[in-house]
Amino acid sequence: MINNFIKFKKKYFLIFIICVIIYYLIKLNLIKDNDVYELFTDNKIPNFTTFHSNNYIYDIQGNLKYQILSKKTIHFSTNKLSWLYKPVLITFIDKNPIWIIYANKAKLTKEHILYLYGNIQYHSLIKSAFIEKIKTNSVIINFVNQDITSKDKVVLYGKNFYSISNCFTGNLQKNIITFKGKVKTYYAINIPEKKN
Predict the structure, then answer these.
(1) What SS3 class is residue 110?
(2) Is 156 exposed, middle or buried (0-12, 13-18, 19+ CB in 10 A)?
(3) How far is it, in rounded angstroms, from Cα 169 to Cα 149?
(4) What is the pLDDT of residues 86-139, one digit of tens each?
């Protein structure tokens, strides 16, 4: 009889615990959607993190403009901000890759502006290009109008020359780069050998 009474108490205690859990689950579901959303959107906590991502950016006509690869991407939904670590950006014109750009890290904002930081290197993917490589430490790329700017020292390497400047502006789609400030250019002159 006592065993039956103990089993009876355990059974009702278990039912009571289940009822309490159901009550709190129902109460949690009655919270407004905005309140629940705010619970999971803290600016300090990312909404997701990906490793080895590969993203494509197209223009309005559906033409491929950029491919962005990164070893790690962290995204914050509240301010629509993404951090990319070891990003690689490939630019395209008419489906042809034109530039490949490497950096240590990058920040992509909701305004479609990419800020590149640390050891940035542009390499031309066109073998006959006049400009072969560009090196700097920070670059801002506006994906809307394709403008690029840098306020850091920049070194541009071309065929038989290189130039150094304090900063530059340009446009990726037009393949234009304009140096600002002090500009120094050094040429390698090929002098024919004298025949004796």
Answers:
(1) coil
(2) buried
(3) 4
(4) 999 999 988 899 889 999 999 999 999 999 999 999 999 988 888 889 999 999
Yes or no: say if 94 and 67 are a contact pair by the CB < 8 Å rule. no
Q: C-alpha angle with apex 173: 169 to 178, nearest 5 degrees?
A: 20
pTM attached to this predicted model: 0.71
Distance, CA of 165 to CA of 168 (rounded, Å): 7
At 5 the three-state DSSP class reads: helix
Whether 147 contacts 168, CB under 8 Å: no
What would the mean pLDDT of 134-147 be, rounded to a whole number?
91
DSSP tag of 104: S
Buried-state track 96-107, b at ≥16 Cβ within 10 A, e below 16: eebbbbbbebbe
Lowest mean pLDDT among 29-33, 83-87, 120-124: 29-33
The alpha-helical segments, DSSP class H, found in 30-137 are 33-39
Sequence letter at residue 137: N
Tokens, residue 25? 């689950």
- Give the C-alpha separation, 29 to 50, whole Å: 30
| Token pair belonging to 75 | 């995204």
Could you tell me the CA-to-CA distances from 31 to 34, 42, 111, 142, 150 in Å, in that order? 8, 18, 32, 40, 48
